[in-house]
Write a structure and sequence with these properties.
Helix content is about 85%, strand content about 0%. With about 325 residues, the protein is mainly alpha-helical.
Length: about 325
Amino acid sequence: MINLGALYISTLRVEDGLKLVQQGLEFFRQGNYGRYVTAGLTHLGRGYRRKGEYALALQAFNEKLELAKKSNNQRLIADCNGEIAAVLMDQENLPESLKLYEAAFKVYEEIRHKSRLVYNKINRGHVLWRMGHYNEVQVVFDDLYATVSAPESEFKHLKRVLLVAMGGARLSQQNFEEAIKFSTEGLALAGDDEEVAIQGLFTLGLAKAFSGDRNGGLKLCRDAVTKASNSGDFTLLSRALLAEAEAALLAKDAGTALKLAAEAQTRFARGSQFASEWRAWLIASKASELLGDKATSEAQLRNAQSARSRMEAQWGPEEFKKYSSRPDIQVYTQ
């Protein structure tokens, strides 16, 4: 039952999958089948994360963490920290996410768990570039690239994930040529990997839009939204909507930019995703200004500043300052 639920969660039937996992968990809890309870909590947490129900995802993973602590299973504790870190990454509490990924990494190093080390590095890379830690992330990316590109590597399938992450980092640095290069290469390897395809499409779309191909970039972002709408992944769709809103603004389609930014903002507010929410408000403000609605634009700008202040309070002044030094963020704040 739990395995079938996990299969549903990995496809479009997230609700059906969660119901099956919950039923299985109830049975295994009653029978005190610890290993199966742990597996069920993993799938439950991942299902809620996919839906954007972050509090419920954290509840499931924290329950799993308590079980791991009772058994003093260090690898399982590290796994739990990684799962919680992934939720916090989606929720954009990146400093706390990074701390947990780093704690897990130390354990995987001690026990020399090769595959978990590789996956952990990829996830830390995602967090580091978003925080503006470019020197650190370049070391991680270089190491990973050598690993996934080695002729006999067992991790070749992760090259697409890494390339799209590198594309996102270059986009944030306003290095549009390399953003286009890496995201195009990642998309070519995406296959049926929805997450890579969606992220690759909107990364490439924004890079092209900023490079001058505004209509072409907008189309790619729109394709990402269509694909994300069918994925059942809350966060991916939110980010794709924000990207399309930004591309529409660059194309001077203010009406579309305003509509999409408002939709994205509502979703980010629901997830307490302050880093993206303030950008959604700012895009909406710029779109309203283009439409000649000065009063609305000013109100939206105040909302953007409020969301940004909440982000600063959550991250702390040092990490917020580092994030604010990102070239793409500087464009917004100048």
